[in-house]
């Protein structure tokens, strides 16, 4: 199908300065999830994006299903990761149907793209197996580098979308508070929220420092305990049966 999402494929071809940040975040959070959900029978993953997380999940579970609404993004992924074992289904999240349930559902940096995040969270609760876990990763408006820019008078509105956000198809940022409210409104209990990659400076500034990989890993480790300052937020959710009674 021809998809309105195809216009964003250029952002996922590995040619942007922000791929530095993307690779850090997208290879970090799947490892954090794997610490909680070990050897899942079946994983449902929303969105291909850059493909880093898809490859990690594919290697860590028996069955890995990925939903993606853009044929161009799917083609780009297959060119970059031709050996991937993941089953890719071309569909919009709002239209996906299945009788299958999954031990783990991952929404890795997709809720900032969709028209109605609450609808998506509500809908995919139906596909969770009993005792299944749902993880949500989203960009944080209050990350340290944006806070610095705001305090320095360079960023009047920390939730304002940049040109790069628009290229990626982002519609919003989140904060710890807004993500908590969204998950609660969708009928989930929040078991944990942690940070993904404490980013102290703008991407161009970080690249100019030529930081050792040990420092990059340390920034990820520190970020776990400081979600309010980190580049992304990772929320571990489970259905809250009391909210539906």
UniProtKB/TrEMBL annotation:
Gene Ontology biological process terms in this record: methylation
Keyword terms: Methyltransferase, Transferase
Keyword Methyltransferase: yes
Keyword RNA-binding found: no
Cited SUPFAM superfamilies: S-adenosyl-L-methionine-dependent methyltransferases (SSF53335)
A Pfam family that the UniProt record links to this protein: Methyltransf_23
A GO molecular function held by the record: methyltransferase activity
Domain of life: Bacteria
Alphabetical list of InterPro entries matching this protein: SAM-dependent_MTases_sf (IPR029063)
PANTHER family in the cross-refs: TRANS-ACONITATE 2-METHYLTRANSFERASE-RELATED
Protein name (Swiss-Prot/TrEMBL): Class I SAM-dependent methyltransferase
Organism name: Bradyrhizobium zhengyangense
């Amino acid at each position: 199908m021809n998809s309105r999402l195809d216009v964003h494929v250029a952002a996922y071809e590995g040619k942007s300065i922000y791929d530095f940040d993307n690779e850090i975040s997208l290879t970090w959070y799947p490892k954090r999830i794997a610490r909680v959900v070990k050897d899942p029978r079946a994983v449902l993953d929303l969105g291909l994006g850059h493909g880093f997380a898809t490859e990690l999940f594919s290697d860590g579970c028996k069955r890995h299903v990925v939903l993606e609404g853009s044929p161009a993004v799917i083609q780009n992924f297959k060119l970059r990761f031709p050996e991937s074992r993941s089953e890719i289904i071309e569909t919009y999240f709002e239209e996906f149907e299945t009788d299958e349930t999954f031990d783990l559902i991952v929404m890795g940096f997709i809720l900032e793209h969709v028209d109605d995040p609450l609808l998506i969270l509500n809908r995919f609760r139906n596909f969770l197996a009993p005792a299944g876990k749902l993880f949500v990763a989203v960009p944080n408006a209050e990350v340290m580098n944006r806070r610095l820019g705001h305090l320095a008078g360079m960023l009047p509105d920390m939730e304002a979308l940049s040109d790069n956000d628009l290229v990626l198809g982002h519609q919003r940022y989140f904060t710890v508070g807004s993500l908590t409210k969204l998950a609660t409104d969708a009928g989930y209990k929040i078991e944990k929220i942690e940070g993904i990659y404490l980013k102290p400076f703008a991407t161009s500034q970080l690249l100019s420092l030529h930081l050792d990989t040990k420092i990059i890993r340390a920034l990820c480790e520190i970020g776990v305990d400081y979600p309010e300052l980190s580049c992304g937020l990772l929320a571990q959710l489970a259905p809250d049966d009391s909210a539906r009674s």
